[in-house]
RPP40 protein (Sylvia atricapilla), 177 residues
Amino acid sequence: GAEGSTLMSYFSKHQIQALKPKITFSTLRDLQCPVLQSNDLQGKPEESCSTEELFEWLGAVLNQVSLDNISSSFLSTYCCPEPNTVVEKAFLCTITGFIIPEKIIQLLEQLCCYFSEPKLAYWLTLTVHGFADSPVSWRESEHGFHKGGENLYNFVIFRNLDYWLHMAVGAHDDCPP
């Protein structure tokens, strides 16, 4: 209608364009990874790590924090939780931009197809971050920025297609049931 054409002329006049998502790939070599069992969310000593330990480890990996626990490091003395295993190659793909839910579902389905080929991975993850200062959150609530603006969820998909779902929001936000 008229509103649509007015908006289009406004956008073209002010040269506002839809940003294409930016995609970056990197290979992490000799990465220490937590050992996980899909049916054990709490983890067991010497057998597997818990969901919380995995989530913390993932944060360190995505932010490229060293896992070496070097006492002279001013940034972090974090180390990979036990038990862990060294993975020769891990692939990290980051897509930055405004991504609609349908595309996220499509990505998730493509990741699940990865296990149908003879691959060595036991599990993989998909993390979706909302913008820290996004005006909306889940359900009916406004997004409370306050300190960190946490606003994300993370799928861990296992070879048998079991999955874990982490959700993280700020203290003043609603979370889905």
Remarks:
- The radius of gyration is 20 Å.
- Residues 98-176 form one domain.
- DSSP finds three helices and five strands in the chain.
- Helices lie at 2-13, 51-62, 101-113.
